[in-house]
Amino acid sequence: MTVALVTAAVARGLDDDLPPLTAALDAHGVPWELVDWDDPAVDWAAFDLAVVRSVWDYPRRRDEMLAWAARTAAVTDLANPPRVLSWSSEKRYLADLAAAGVPVVPTAFAEPGEAMDWPGGEVVVKPAVSAGSIDTARYGAHERAAAAEHVARLHADGRTAMAQPYLAAVEGVRGETALVHIGGAFSHAARKGPMLVPGLQVVGDLFVEEDIRPATATADEMRVGALALAAVPGGAADLLYARVDLVPGPDGAPVVLELELVEPSLFLAHVPGTAATMAAAITARRGGATARG
């Protein structure tokens, strides 16, 4: 049986993780097939494992994607599982993390028809269901009217808006750190350059280009990352992959910006050996699914 690497038609050729991952799967002797999540011709029961990777068109089709996930998980092992995809594909999970004692970037949400409870100073506005920094913008303290217009556009489109204080330390030496976990264990860290700065290009109308470099996580970052994963509903034991994005808070201590459990880039092309780690985790999970079957 074969492993399905799940993508979207619009994302084909854009996933930097895919070449090193498929090469590593080949080295492990694991047959794989790249399939679009919404292709009606796919027989998902023919796979003993389906790994969600680049379903990067889901923000506009979230309900459809979650319905697909439920159907697929009924006939094969889906990683990550539907309960995780549902919870982490809408950024209200940040409130759940905060309630569990995880330090997060303070976030206000406003559904259509609701007023935004604005944080002070410079702010970031985005939809609550979003990826790749699309439909996300930064506004100065004197640009509140423009920020409110952004919220109004999201509301007019039927989307929930969110606002966060812009943490300028993201542009500093430490910046944004991504902690990548694979197969239930920490694998590697990457430094992400600031996203909301002039001059960055949008790739395929799906995501803003990123400046990625290998990094070494600090003890404080590792502690916060562990707290975030411990707060995942149902526990983190069933996660094939996870990415915790951290930024320095006002006091310099790390806070969670996002907990990426749906389709995150894992930066396998940027950190040597990590594709082999992912292939080994897929091999182990596939073996378990085959044994259960």
Describe this structure in words.
The protein is α+β, with helices and mostly antiparallel strands. The chain folds into three domains: 2-88 and 273-292, Rossmann fold (3-Layer(aba) Sandwich), CATH 3.40.50.20; 108-165, no CATH class; 169-260, ATP-grasp fold, B domain (D-amino Acid Aminotransferase, Chain A, domain 1, 2-Layer Sandwich). 27% of the residues lie in helices and 26% in strands. It is built from seven helices and 15 strands. It has helices at residues 18-27, 62-73, 82-88, 93-99, 144-156, 219-230, 274-292; strands at residues 2-7, 32-36, 47-54, 78-79, 108-110, 123-127, 137-139, 161-165, 176-182, 185-192, 202-203, 207-208, 212-215, 241-248, 254-260. Strands 13-10-9-14-15 form a five-stranded antiparallel sheet. Strands 2-1-3-4 form a four-stranded parallel sheet. Strands 5-8-6-7 form a four-stranded antiparallel sheet, covered by helices on one side. β14 (241-248) and β15 form a beta hairpin. It is globular. Mean pLDDT is 91; it is low at 200-204.
